[in-house]
TrEMBL record:
Documented EC number(s): 1.15.1.1
Lineage summary: Bacteria, Pseudomonadati, Pseudomonadota, Alphaproteobacteria, Hyphomonadales
Keyword terms, alphabetized: Iron, Metal-binding, Oxidoreductase
Cofactor(s) required, per the database record: Fe(3+)
Name the UniProt record assigns to this protein: Superoxide dismutase
Organism (species): Hyphomonas chukchiensis
Coiled coil: none
Keyword presence, Disulfide bond: no
Domain Manganese/iron superoxide dismutase N-terminal: from-to ranges: 3-87
Length: 198
């Protein structure tokens, strides 16, 4: 079974004005689609055909000669996770279990915002800011390019923010900070985060 581009969990215009329909047309419809198409071509006829996305990512990460495969497989996973990390009328302070964990593990919501923006803003070039659960505690991390917590033993991704330029350039030009503010204040899907905590 070849991989297919997953549908967005909302309409392409539903995140506006924070992320425009035009951005999602390119980001989901072109970038994410290209990663899916490349992944399918690369695994066709190999022993990875029919494996899960996570299995492919882990196998490719362990083999330097499969860097291209890793990049495309990880970007398929990262983007799918990113779409679900957002929702219309999201953002702001969390509720439920994630709120308690942010308080106890990260020093409260205001500290989370500061550290999450520092991770996203401090990622030179392309990459991702992550909220992960590791050893029972929340942590904020960042990864370059297609790197993903999926390859890290004992890490469970809870939320991600894409800081590749194509995630925000049409809407915010070179102002990554304005995009990050919009993401945190208006888009974070805390229901998804609570679900990922288990």
């Amino acid at each position: 079974m070849a991989f297919s581009l997953p549908d967005l969990p909302y309409g392409r215009g539903d995140l506006a004005p924070h992320i425009s329909e035009e951005t999602l047309n390119y980001h989901h419809g072109k970038h994410h689609q290209a990663y899916v198409d490349n992944l399918n071509k690369m695994i066709e006829g190999t022993d990875l055909e029919g494996k899960s996305l996570e299995e492919i990512i882990k196998a490719a990460a362990a083999d330097k000669s499969k860097a291209g495969l890793f990049n495309n497989a990880a970007q398929v996973w990262n983007h799918t996770f990113y779409w679900h990390s957002m929702k219309p009328n999201g953002g702001g302070k969390p509720t439920g279990k994630i709120a308690d964990k942010i308080e106890s593990d990260l020093g409260g919501y205001d500290q989370f915002v500061k550290d999450f923006k520092a991770a996203g803003g401090g990622q030179f070039g392309s990459g991702w800011a992550w909220l992960v659960l590791k050893d029972g505690k929340l942590a904020i991390t960042k990864t370059p390019n297609a790197e993903t917590p999926v390859t890290e033993a004992g890490a469970t991704p809870i939320l991600t923010m894409d800081v590749w330029e194509h995630a925000y350039y049409l809407d915010y030009q070179n102002s990554r900070p304005n995009y990050m503010d919009a993401f945190i204040n208006n888009l974070i899907n805390w229901d998804f985060a609570n679900k990922n905590l288990g």
